[in-house]
């Protein structure tokens, strides 16, 4: 029903307005008695064989919602009813910011893709914390970044603020230095500043009564030499894993009319490259650390390929928009079929 009826209607309107409309609709419907149970019966598969122990946590299944969809932790409880094993909120920054000027979100229908240049639009970490206090048992990742006005030399301070504010309310952290939509942010992926940032967060982490997993989200546009640096940095800083990958600035092979819009590209065109990055990291490091695979997962087969390449968990975003919540169930069913 989603692809045949709902998606064609939604795709007639501006994507950012549709995003807010859909949030409001899901929130409203979820308040109707019996609807939570209905969603769970339609999309959720509960089976011990799907559980994944990782980072000292137990993921009910390996399919998560990637950061960027529920930036401000407004809908994570309701979204969990669609069958996700975990949900990543953010990217959050210390202070609220509007992000880049609109229009900043573009569908590439012919390519099953999206270009966004949102620019870390969010209400600030403290507002998200208020909502996270209402968590009803959802495993949450906290994706953190820096404010646009914060110069890179002071970026560590922004990440520290977010880390401390979220610590009691998320299950793991993701350090986002790979979005192409905040000026100069990707420069923080360079070996020296990235090592400094992660070490600073680990100092804070180990001061806590019990530390929490820290992961690094990387761009798909890194060279093999840069990926080698990432492997070395993970080893040196002793962070817990990598999320591969964020959106790409590449426009190779696109067919859609708005393919040249500035921003990060997500969706089907990213499928092969993100899988290549996962495979390279897993093989070159001898699977020294866990990897969460994300990028161009539009089918159960795409998900299986990510896992076969070396991912321990996966996340979806653009595939969720194009394929609907059935995608989560189809991936989990494929995993169960593979184990039977």
From TrEMBL:
Pathways involved: Pyrimidine metabolism; UMP biosynthesis via de novo pathway; orotate from (S)-dihydroorotate (quinone route): step 1/1
Active site: 179 (nucleophile)
Cofactor: FMN
Record field: catalytic activity: (S)-dihydroorotate + a quinone = orotate + a quinol
InterPro entries, A to Z: Aldolase_TIM, DHO_dehydrogenase, Dihydroorotate_DH_1_2, Dihydroorotate_DH_2, Dihydroorotate_DH_cat, Dihydroorotate_DH_CS
List of residues binding FMN: 67-71, 91, 143, 176, 217, 245, 267, 296, 317-318
Domain Dihydroorotate dehydrogenase catalytic: 50-336
UniProt keyword terms in alphabetical order: Cell membrane, Flavoprotein, FMN, Membrane, Oxidoreductase, Pyrimidine biosynthesis
Recorded topology in the membrane: Peripheral membrane protein
Subcellular location: Cell membrane; Membrane
Superkingdom per UniProt: Bacteria
Function: Catalyzes the conversion of dihydroorotate to orotate with quinone as electron acceptor.
NCBIfam families cross-referenced by the UniProt entry: PRK05286.1-2, PRK05286.2-5, pyrD_sub2
Family indicated by similarity: Belongs to the dihydroorotate dehydrogenase family. Type 2 subfamily.
The protein's name in its UniProt record: Dihydroorotate dehydrogenase (quinone)
Organism: Winogradskyella aquimaris
